[in-house]
Amino acid sequence: MITGKGSWAIAPVAALAFAVVFVVSWAVLPPESAIRLYDQGGFSPVEIATLPLFALIIPLVWLCCPFEGSRRRRIVLQLCVTALALFALAKETDFHIAIMRYFYPDTVNFKGTPFKMKFLTKSAFPFGAKAIVLVYFGTLFGIAAFAIARYFKPLLRGFFKLHPVCWSVAFMGGSGVLVQICDRLPAMIRKAQLLDPALMDKQTGSVAALLKIFEEGTEAALASFALLAILQAYLVYNTPSPKEELRI
Prior knowledge:
Blueprint: H1 10-28, H2 31-38, H3 45-63, H4 71-93, H5 95-103, H6 127-160, H7 164-192, H8 206-237
């Protein structure tokens, strides 16, 4: 039972299992094969498998509402979760880049992605393109800031009380941080020349392969923890027999 005694441990055990799979993949496969398994610009087996996990969040949060309160409050929170899932899907498929490329084809031709904060500070780019990026970041960070402000204290309190939902949410958040670290770290290592360039080669480097495995694989883990948290919260708060002892 995902809300039974000891269910707080589901998330850390799952995280350990994911990590073992990632390390084994890195250990048994040549770097180029491991990279192809996890990253092919959205078409690798792992990337394709991640898409339905994020997509499933949307119907699940509406069918199994994890929130308490009035109908209006629950709908607003469900819309926030839906928006975050759509952002995740857009990132996985580069749909936001495709939108920008459609409206501003010349703007997206520069190296890198326009969906970075420094894009907003450069006068060379058109205002409309900056507006798209601003709305993207404003919505994303606005929802994230609201969630942190509203739920940080109860989540922290529940974490130390071994509340299963809080542990799942904690590992979901930790997964998001790890994805960003693994995404940024290769460029930082290359720029600082901390390792042999052969180890950091994007196609054949063993360290580059390990970081790519953890980046792409942890995105699947993040979606899995989100699904787990939604189901656990629904069972705790909104089933015909809610678990009163687990209320925070």
